[in-house]
Amino acid sequence: MSGLKNVAANAKEQAEEVNQKAQELIVEINTMSDAVSKLKGFAGEGIRNVTNDVREANEEAQEAMKKVSEVKEQTGVDAKRIVALGEQIKLLQEKIKEAREKASRIRISMKSDDAGVCRRAFVSPAHLAPRNVFALRYRPLLNVPDSLLFLTKTKAKRTQESEFIAMELRERRIVVHWNIGSGTRMVTNTHTINYIAPGDRTA
User: Fold this and answer.
1) Which of 14, 45, 80, 81 has the fewest Cβ atoms surrounding its Cβ within 10 A?
2) In angstroms, what CA-CA distances link 29 with 16, 50, 54, 68?
3) What's the pTM?
4) Terminal CA-to-CA distance of the chain, rounded, Å?
């Protein structure tokens, strides 16, 4: 990156130098133009001398313009290199962010033995709890519509889909939906939840 900054600084310095030289040539040409106007009535030898000076100044001006063009071309090449480097840095930042997200999904805990010595332990997702228990007290009305009873979910990331567990009442049956990393699943309880009259309720 410092190399590109040095190249850009050198290009800027060359451009300023060429611009200053061009300004000096403009002043010199204006001065000679005034001299030509004054020499219109003089001898032809003096006019030829002024003409030669003007020709030399014109050649120097063309050389200066050539240098300006070369500096612009080099500056364009440097600009393309800077843009390409910026894109590579952006790609590297994305890869670092993705690696951090993947690393955050690895669960590591600190455990200690009887002697009080701590050690790091990796909690493998292959040994999770075999089941989850949810207890909901639910009493439907006489004409209850289908409705969502319970929902918990995680925020989706670029490298990981959103995980969720949801329970709903559909046609008076409990339906559970979940996705905890192995795809979306669904199970329906075949038991129908019927309306219980107030006189028949025990609780």
Assistant:
1) 45
2) 20, 10, 7, 19
3) 0.37
4) 75
